[in-house]
Write a structure and sequence with these properties.
Structural class: mainly beta
Number of helices: 6
Number of strands: 39
Radius of gyration: 22 Å
Number of domains: 3
CATH class of the largest domain: Mainly Beta
Distance between the termini: 45 Å
Length: 575
């Protein structure tokens, strides 16, 4: 059964979810408090006001920010910088790095300074905000995190194989005004990793308000590829952090509208930002470009394609969460869920000066399937309710529906250049995990009472573990999502895994599969996050070998950050 959004909102309002007076929202038994500087959003408030509302002076009409209009893409893309600043590139020094989580006004919207949370580093006489940290495989990292944001926080080094005291478990979250010391050796292969906050019930808001940065590991495979393709980081090799935001009429970030259902579904914005650049454009030439795509959104998945007019251009997928594939895969689109990364090459040599290519998210079925119990969410969109005049009203929800098509980045070809490099036949060595004799487990993703998201019927408990794994063991896990559900990007802490098989996948995935096991091109490499669709079972294999002292406690959780904050997360121990 599917219901209209108007019917959905009426049913949602009847659900027994309450606002806590003066505090936050209770969802799934968790109180989701507002931040110390956040005021409640008025019912019906949307970016820059609504027709019929009194409006304050706004930096731009919403129509100039609408990502569905390609003519809006005139801003400059923020690029990696060598002189510090936002997304400044910083080689991790041998000595300790002081990283402060604090508040800063940053440029996101044209002509407006937006209050945000950032990671700040002062090093070598320069100030870096959300720096792109680069380190060689085998190198050492020593970081002192100072918390200056007014509430508990901790950093998770997403995708890295570190011991649990360096992993950012929420039990290690530090109060504002205190600090935490990290020290670890980088054992991971070259890849695009990232770092972000991980305090329980606070992760979604802190990450949304700006706390996120790239962590890039280099090894011999990476150096060889860069030489073979003549890639220059920050020029033809570009990290792209993709996020959706929502702004009030003052150009300040809105997070959660006060509607408990918005927490249950996950937070969706309606203004697209790439590297905190709204509706950006980039001048390019006729050669290969590398884009390191990171979905840094709280809840929104993307079906990414490079388009010229109505045509999708082929591109090469060369890497996933855990680094380079064995061979490049030619694709025309790929799904990227929250926390996933895709390393791609786009060849522009067949185009000419004056041509335009867009990175887009094309239409797909978000599969917010009908669920029994509290309110249901069949056919759920996140755009409020459409009125007869085409405007949007409701409870301050996003104007941009999940699964709707929109643009992300304009690539404007300015000149033709001579370039004769070709994609290597072999990129790296990727040995499959030997699953002979492996143990097995099953994880059921479901909805519980009071609109909770659960793993094996459990919600997060800070001090207890759902299961234990023997150190050195290899296991195959079946992650099953209920039919009455929504997609869940499942993230494993501590270890990378490989996708073994997909079963029961939706029809929109079947045309993208590359083998008889239902796997997608993005399933062929090392992963730390995998999207599991309603009714689908994804089998993954992992080796739990490590060289750390003592028992280790890690986590398995949904990386829809609102689901994580609600408790869709479990501890596991490696003993």
């Amino acid at each position: 059964m599917r219901v209209s959004r108007r019917g959905f909102l009426k049913r949602a309002a009847a659900a027994s979810l309450a606002l806590v007076a003066g505090g936050g929202t209770v969802v799934g038994g968790y109180t989701l408090a507002r931040g110390p500087d956040e005021a409640p959003t008025r019912a019906g408030q949307s970016p820059f006001g609504l027709p019929g509302q009194a409006r304050t002076a706004s930096p731009a009409d919403y129509n100039t920010l609408d990502p569905r209009n390609p003519d809006n893409f005139t801003g400059a893309l923020k690029l990696p910088r060598t002189d510090g600043g936002l997304f400044g590139v910083l080689e991790v020094p041998a000595e300790r790095l002081d990283l402060t989580a604090g508040r800063e006004a940053v440029d996101i919207l044209p002509g407006i300074r937006t209050d945000a949370l950032v990671y700040r580093v002062e090093h070598g006489g320069r100030v870096y905000l959300n720096p792109i940290l680069k380190v060689q495989k085998g190198g050492s990292v020593a970081v002192r995190l100072a918390n200056d944001i007014g509430e508990d926080t901790i950093v998770h080094w997403h995708g890295l194989h570190v011991d649990w005291r360096n992993d950012g478990h929420p039990i290690h979250a530090v109060p504002s005004g205190q600090a935490y010391e990290y020290s670890f050796a980088v054992q991971d292969r070259s890849a695009t990793y990232w770092y972000h906050p991980h305090p329980h019930t606070l992760t979604g808001r802190q990450a949304y308000r700006g706390l996120a940065g790239f962590f890039l590991v280099e090894d011999e495979d990476e150096r060889r590829l860069r030489e073979q393709l003549d890639l220059q980081f920050g020029v033809t090799d570009l990290p792209l952090l993709i996020q959706d935001k929502r702004f009030d009429e003052r150009g300040q970030l809105i997070y959660l509208s006060g509607d408990p259902m918005e927490q249950f579904s996950g937070f969706f914005g309606d203004v697209m930002a790439v590297n905190l650049s709204v509706n950006p454009s980039l001048d390019v030439s006729t050669r290969l470009y590398r884009f390191r795509l990171l979905n840094g959104s709280n809840a929104r998945s993307y079906r990414l394609a490079f388009t010229r007019g109505n045509d999708s251009l082929p591109f090469h997928l060369i890497g996933t969460d855990g680094g380079l594939l064995a061979q490049a895969a030619s694709v025309k689109e790929l799904f990227l869920s929250p926390a996933e990364r895709a390393d791609v090459l786009l060849d522009l040599r067949d185009l000419g000066a004056g041509d335009t290519v867009f990175l887009r998210s094309v239409t797909f079925d978000p599969m917010h399937n009908e669920m029994g119990g509290m309110g249901g969410m069949g056919g759920m969109g996140h755009g409020g309710m459409q009125q007869g005049d085409g405007t949007t009203s409701g409870v301050g929800t996003s104007r941009l529906d999940d699964g709707e098509a929109f643009y992300l980045l304009r690539l404007s070809i300015r000149e033709r250049v001579a370039y004769d490099r070709t994609v290597p036949t072999t990129l790296a060595s990727v040995d499959p995990i030997d699953v002979r004799g492996a143990g097995s487990r099953t994880f059921e993703l479901s909805q519980g009472m009071m609109m909770q998201w659960l793993i094996n019927g459990r919600s997060f408990e800070m001090d207890s573990a759902l299961f234990s794994v023997r150190k050195g063991a290899t296991e195959v896990w079946d992650i099953r999502n209920a039919d009455a559900s929504m997609p869940h990007p499942m993230h494993l802490h501590g270890f990378q895994f490989q996708v073994v098989e997909r079963r029961g996948s939706p029809s929109q995935l079947r045309g993208l599969t590359v083998d008889g096991k239902g796997r997608l091109p993005t399933d062929l490499g090392w992963k730390d996050t995998v999207l599991v669709w309603p009714g689908e079972t994804v089998s993954v294999a992992a080796s739990f070998a490590h060289g750390f002292e003592g028992e280790q406690t890690y986590q398995l959780h949904c990386h829809n950050l609102e689901h994580e904050d609600m408790g869709m997360m479990v501890n596991y121990r490696v003993t």
